[in-house]
Write a structure and sequence with these properties.
5-stranded mixed sheet, 3 domains, globular, Nucleotidyltransferase, domain 5, alpha/beta, 7 strands
């Protein structure tokens, strides 16, 4: 239970803040509508009977308000929205009611807080997610270009696409292969978009490589890179998305990234459904993508050997055991005729545990 006298809930939006305060001693409820300015929020809190405890939901407004209140000596937590308990019969939702509901939950100690990243961690996360957006934009741009050609019965049959050979073939299509000046203009626009987005992605890759080589995340990135399928980019993204690995265990980290099965059981009946897909979706996608690399026969190739050189002997031994185990899991699922997509998710869930075990190791 909170020992502060006044419990305050804030419903924070881009242009307004709905505030509600409950005085534990008198039971008085005070409500107000404030601007999103931290100065005005602190001024309103200063007029309440102290000490004060504050809670607001995590959202697009970020953590600046939390940092400002913490620096001012005001106790503040940021609540996980998916963990807030709401009455089943409550059919009226307003900002004022949401703020009052938060204040009551804080008073009852029913708030599940989120982990607050440092300014440096949040900055690195912004970089990683910008790269993720560039990856999605590049995929969309490539699809638009290839489907434009497909509508005109132009199909590349030279093998692997989006390499130098394919790029040379694309440049030849701007000529007589496309009928109509308007179609050629559309092709040039789509092709130019592919080149521009690819250049943006490459610049972000270079920035991530530089930061991964010399930052607070470098030791974790090097340890994670000892596993197959986890390059420097993937390892850095996992490091900044997870943040403090010590708040999890080998079992609970799979739940955090939403890779555990959903369940609806009653009595003696136990029914498992698809994965929950809760928590950090960015980390989940990276883990599933990395899990596919463990499908092939385990061979320590040159890229993996170079990453091993950056890790210590204990990390290499642990990672080698994990690589063998994860490939064996793929073999087992294949022998049981499991769908590859189902097997990949199961391997990704176990891969998350191996990543955790390496991330928390001492250098």
């Amino acid at each position: 239970m909170w020992s502060e006298r006044t419990s305050v809930g804030l419903d924070v939006h881009a242009r307004s803040v709905a505030a509600a305060a409950i005085d534990v001693v008198t039971g008085e409820v005070v409500q107000a509508r404030l601007s999103p300015s931290s100065e005005q929020v602190r001024g309103w809190l200063a007029r309440l009977p102290g000490p004060v405890a504050v809670v607001y939901e995590a959202g697009p407004t970020g953590f600046d308000l939390y940092r400002d209140l913490t620096v001012a000596g005001i106790g503040c937590v940021v609540a996980a929205p998916s963990k807030l308990q709401r009455p089943a019969g409550d059919r009226v939702k307003t900002d004022a009611r949401d703020a009052l509901h938060l204040a009551r939950l804080l008073l009852l100690d029913q708030i599940t807080p989120v982990a607050i990243p440092t300014v440096e961690q949040e900055s690195a996360r912004d970089l990683v997610r910008a790269r993720e957006d560039a990856r999605g934009d590049l995929m969309a741009a490539r699809h638009r270009l290839s489907k434009l050609l497909l509508r005109h019965s132009i199909v590349y049959d030279g093998g692997t696409t989006w390499n130098s050979t394919h790029d040379l073939w694309l440049r030849r299509q701007a000529g007589p292969g496309l009928a109509g000046r308007a179609t050629r203009a559309a092709f040039e626009s789509d092709y130019e978009a592919v080149l521009a987005v690819k250049a943006r992605r490459d610049r972000l890759d270079a920035a991530i490589e530089q930061l991964a080589a010399d930052s607070e995340f470098t030791p974790v990135v090097r340890r994670l890179g000892a596993l197959r399928g986890i390059s420097t980019l993937t390892g850095f993204a996992l490091a900044v998305e997870i943040g403090d690995w010590h708040r999890f265990t080998g079992n609970s980290i799979g739940t955090f990234v939403g890779l555990t099965p959903s369940e609806h059981s009653s009595g003696s009946v136990r029914v498992l459904g698809p994965i929950t897909k809760t928590g950090n979706g960015h980390a989940r996608r990276l883990l599933v993508e990395a899990a596919w690399h463990h499908r092939a026969r385990y061979v320590v190739g040159e890229p993996l050997r170079r990453r091993w050189e950056l890790a210590g002997p204990a990390v290499r031994a642990r990672a080698d055991a994990g690589n063998r185990r994860l490939h064996h899991r793929w073999v087992t699922f294949t022998e049981r005729h499991k769908k590859p997509t189902v097997a990949a998710v199961a391997v990704a869930r176990e891969l998350a545990g191996w990543c955790w075990s390496l991330a928390v190791m001492d250098d």
